[in-house]
Write a structure and sequence with these properties.
- This protein is α/β, with parallel strands linked by helices and 283 residues long.
- It has 2 domains: 2-57, no CATH class; 63-218 and 232-282, Rossmann fold (3-Layer(aba) Sandwich).
- Helices cover 53% and strands 10% of the residues.
- It has 11 helices and 5 strands; from the N terminus they run H-H-H-H-E-H-H-E-H-E-H-E-H-E-H-H.
- The chain has helices at 2-16, 18-34, 38-57, 60-71, 94-100, 110-121, 144-154, 171-178, 198-207, 233-255, 268-282; strands at 84-88, 127-130, 162-165, 188-194, 211-217.
- It has a 5-stranded parallel beta sheet, sandwiched between helices.
- Helix 4 packs across helix 10.
- The longest helix has 23 residues, at 233-255.
- The protein is elongated.
Length: 283
């Protein structure tokens, strides 16, 4: 069943990607125009024109990704004791690494830097990386596990502290397989992933019974006065793609029962602890 979900999710995104939708509208509109079906062509070309102009004029990418990133913030105070630091894969660039035979990071590389920072604050805690091959077709060469191992040691994490889970292909499988490698099943773990990806990750963690304290990194949206109409089409596309993927993922995971809520918030346990601490302060 999970194999079917994985394949269908990949195929669905190939169709639902904003860039793919725009290209399909342009291609279909052009084909109908070449064959003389002008009215039919306009039904495809006009939406493509509106979509392109909207991306050029308005910060659509920011508008879509900001609610995801603002949903769960970094804790004002880190817990005194933890049982490990969980790092979700996605910050590595496996294809370019294989091509050039050098470790390469992608846009979510802040996950590694966040892990390195927390590793210094918790020198006795294990660093638990989870992430495997998420491609439908994967050529032989460097594996995501090998690359993550190398990248984590490059940012200063001692090899003896690493626990690498390399079989998961998506966020749901991340937490499913984490249950087999984490030191304590009922422990408390810091969770490091991109801010826009944190709500879905927290929802899945709660559903799987893994207690996490979110530590979001890799913020991409602009806020306040920084958000403006700057005619940055490519920059907005870079934000629009992951944001739209995440909203689709939140919906699909909730419908299939993989998350605790459609738009998860701070984990329940952390809310309870915060409330208890506040009441204690008042007393």
């Amino acid at each position: 069943m999970e194999q079917l979900f994985f394949v269908l999710s990949k195929l669905a995104w190939a169709i639902l990607s904003p860039l793919m939708v725009l290209n399909l509208l342009l291609v279909l509109g052009t084909v109908f125009l070449l064959f003389g079906y002008r009215k039919v062509a306009l039904r495809f070309l006009f939406p493509a024109l509106l979509f392109s102009l909207s991306l050029i004029i308005f910060p659509l990418g920011d508008w879509l990704i900001y609610p995801l990133e603002a949903r769960i913030s970094q804790p004002e105070q880190l817990p005194e004791n933890i049982d490990g630091i969980i790092v979700l894969g996605g910050g590595e660039d496996i294809k370019t690494t294989i091509s050039w035979q050098q470790p390469q990071v992608g846009q979510a590389s802040d996950r590694y830097f966040g892990a390195a920072l927390l590793a210094k604050q918790y020198p006795d805690s294990p660093i638990i990386f989870t992430g495997g091959n998420n491609l439908l077709r994967f050529d032989a060469g460097t594996t995501p596990a090998e690359l993550s191992h190398e990248l984590l040691t490059m940012v200063g994490v001692e090899e003896k502290r690493l626990i690498i889970e390399s079989q998961s292909r998506n966020t749901y499988e991340n937490f499913q397989r984490l249950k087999t490698v984490i030191p304590k099943r009922n422990g408390q773990y810091l969770l490091v992933t991109s801010a826009y990806h944190m709500p879905r990750s927290v929802g899945i963690a709660e559903k799987q019974g893994i207690s996490v304290v979110p530590y979001p990194v890799d913020y991409r949206s602009q806020t306040g006065e920084s958000r403006q109409m700057d005619f940055a089409l490519f920059e907005q596309f870079e934000k629009l793609e992951p944001a739209w993927r995440e909203w689709v993922g939140l919906t699909a995971y909730f419908i299939t029962g993989k998350t605790s809520q459609w738009f998860p918030d701070i984990p329940t346990k952390r809310l309870v602890e915060t409330t208890t601490d506040s009441q204690a302060d008042i007393r």
